Amino acid sequence: MKSSTSLKMRLPALVLVLEIVIIALYAVFVTYDDDANAKLQNNQTNPMDNALYRDYPYFADVQVMIFIGFGCLLAFFRFYGFSGMVFNFLTATFAIQWAILIQGFFQFYYDGKIHLGVINLLNAEFACAVVLISFGAVLGKTSPVQLLIMALLEILVFAVTEWAVLKYIRINDAGGTILIHLFACYFGLGVSFVLYRPRLNNGHPKEITSYHSDILSVMGTLFLWIFWPSFNSALTFKGDDQHRAILHTFIGLSSSTITAFSLSALFNKRGKLTMADIQNVTLAGGVTVGASVDMMISPVAAYALGVMGCTACFLGYKYMTPFLAQRMRIQDQCGIHNLHGLTGLISSIAGICAILLATEETYGPSMYQIFSHRAPPEGDPKLLELQKLIPGLKPGLGRTARDQALYQLAAIVSTIAASAAGGVFTGLIMKLQFLASPSDEDCFDDQLFFDVPSDFASIEELKSGAISNEKGNVDKADSKV
């Protein structure tokens, strides 16, 4: 292994520093939330009312997506399976630890402590998902040291953006279309732009898949597909809102899946299916319904959004990804712009349309709960009338549908701008030579950072084996003659 990419000192030193910082901050600021604090429990407390039983199923589902779904999905390269899965494991574990702190510091602003409970872990997992989506843009071209630095900085930028958007712009984004998918996409593209490798624009010899790596990647797709309804519905209001979110996500995923199969066969020159389409394009519907997932958009709209998202995602892989690499100096390795960017934009527009069309005739009084910023402000007589119908309804900002739509648009623009700028800055840091960046020749190869088993076949061994087989076939033909 080249000394410039050795992890012997770099990785342990970075991890040690991060652990010291995290331990110190946890010791000073992190405490239990009310549902995890034994001091607040008594004989009047019903254990089954604990938030654990409401939130843990969603936490567990999203964990499966993070560690198994993303991990397997990113293991599609023949020589990069160890790295795809294990670097995902490493990055995700650190990102969740770090996100608990960074997101929690906005609680510190109010009462001086970070109150840790299952819901905090769930929010940290969503922040982690942002990092893992961005990771897809630079898959195969970065070291684990670079990825930890990327997670460190991206969580910071994400938490600030999330706080600013939710506190000052105030939007409806139940499925995380704007603050997760769009942010992650354009942050990853910003990093990729800075880490551009012109010699890899026409491909790399190791940038290939295998029969088994493709099967493993599809397993990741299936885990993501199955648990995506939990991802989209975890933070919605319990009851009918959450019910609709699950229904819409399943319908969107279903329609995008069958559309992906048909498009794959249609655009294949030999009329066959392409595994890359099955691994990625089938998931597009889960993103496309995200911005309006808890709204009364109707099942047919969810189905149509799944078809639209799948089509945009498929065409993006076919035409947009090469264009970005050749003309924009953005090598989007896993096509995150197609699965999260294009579909995220469609989803955001659909969400704006749903907001503009929302009326009390369709939603009833609950409209002011779903679109909380449209609820009457404090002191408005209508608020008192609505609170009689919906106990616990909080005062809103009195926005009209048009006002809220404009705020949604502002959130989209500001989120993309903040994430792209943050990605460029992070890329500049990741480009520093001492962070063990692999050379062009060593990209997409597990041997650079792992002790590989004896049955690991290198690209040179595969080539020599092919040459030997070809020579053997020629010798057999000569002997027959």
Automatic annotation (TrEMBL):
It is found in: Cell membrane. It is a multi-pass membrane protein. Signal peptide: none annotated. Keywords: Ammonia transport, Cell membrane, Glycoprotein, Membrane, Transmembrane, Transmembrane helix, Transport. InterPro entries: Ammonium/urea_transptr, NH4_transpt_AmtB-like_dom, RhesusRHD. One of its GO terms (cellular component) is plasma membrane. One of its GO terms (biological process) is ammonium homeostasis. GO terms for molecular function: ammonium channel activity. Residues 23-433 form the Ammonium transporter AmtB-like domain. It holds the Pfam family Ammonium_transp. The chain crosses the membrane at residues 12-32, 56-77, 89-110, 116-140, 147-166, 178-196, 208-228, 248-268, 280-297, 303-320, 341-359, 405-429. Belongs to the ammonium transporter (TC 2.A.49) family. Rh subfamily. Functions as an ammonia transporter. May play a role in the elimination of ammonia in the gill. This is Ammonium transporter AmtB-like domain-containing protein.
